[in-house]
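Subgroup meeting minutes
Present: P.N., E.W., G.H.
Scribe: E.W.

1. P.N. recapped why we're keeping a running log of single-chain structure predictions: easier to compare across weeks, and new members can see raw inputs and outputs side by side.
2. G.H. added today's entry (219 aa).
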Amino acid sequence: LSWPGLWNLMKNDRKEPSRAWRDSIFNSGHRRCVATESKSTTRVPVLTDTAWQFGEGGHEATALLLLRHLKAFGYVKRFKSQPFALEELGGPVNRIPDLLVELEPDRSPSVHVIQVKSKRFITSDVEERFSTERELLEGNGMCFHVWTDRDHLSKQTSQTVRILDRGFRHCVTPEVGERIGLAAKIAKTLAPLLEQFGWDDAMSAAALGYFHINCMEKT
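Output recorded in log:
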């Protein structure tokens, strides 16, 4: 599978966070509990493997679903919402990044922080805040990204990851999933897979990693 190009990464030689620090963050609780501290109208539950994480709004939910899909194909090792407070790194208080992502070990740099924001809400004040966060996080060996609805979290991506989420919950059997995966190797479009196996099984096979769908395009 080709790398979807989401990260626009460049090789660097900065010292990354230690394994102990990463494990401590991923094994500890969320620094802000979106499930209880945000409005019921804005929190969106997302099932990631066997655990639930919550996006605060549709864009964060899209990001979580996208990361789950990338994890199924081996690009992402693990990810977490509301992972740590910046003050834990000596930064400003009351600021918590939206997402922490660790890529598989053969991808360098491998530790990334993502802030999710609607493009229309990125004001000069927000840009200044992000600049401060970027400086702090890059100084601690992490890459910093801002994902918006005008790029990685577009309408096309939002639609596709939600279709895959339905497939993720459907859970095609391994036998059928493997058959669909083999058929997908010679299929040029989704049409023959849908005709042969049906929508639910085909989308479930894609969601569970039997074949790849480009989430940046409309399904």
